[in-house]
Amino acid sequence: MKRKFSTAWQGSSQPRKQRKYAANAPLHLKRKLLSVNLAKDLRKKYRKKNIPVRKGDIVLIMRGKFKAKKGKVNEIKTKLEKVYVEGVQIKKRDGSTVNVPLKSSNLQIIELYLEDRKRLGKEVAAPKGVPSEEGKKKKPVKKETTPKGVPRDISKEMSTRGKKQDNKKETGERK
Description:
- It is elongated and about 100 Å long.
- It starts with 14 loop residues before the first helix and ends with a helix.
- The protein contains 6 helices and 9 strands.
- The chain is α+β, with helices and mostly antiparallel strands.
- The chain has a domain of 120 residues: SH3 type barrels, CATH 2.30.30.30.
């Protein structure tokens, strides 16, 4: 691993290489590394185990000093891979308060921010397992035109094509 970031990297069991990959990854891949586990009810609804966190999501802190605290995501720093939650602050010596950066692996999404309809794509409109409008439409039968321009139904011909050839073979053997 001489280069800073390799697109051909398959994975490694060595933590130092995993950390190097995450640290040197471009932002569009770091965004995916900011995925957060979904609560059980959301997992059933959207049939996903985790999803990239977003400003406006309500999360539950699962580990650390602020364990069991709930709050709204205020800010996400993709470059640093840190998430800042509303109400999670510490007091400095001079008396000022500072937001505490959290790792996305220590959070769980309780409520999704769904103002952006593209966030989950078609799953927001209809979760998997629920038929959508597109699934109800019947597909038209494929028709092909003959040399004269008359349309013919291919599906009927396909079902009888094998039978016609078998009949020709049988008649040829009898002679």
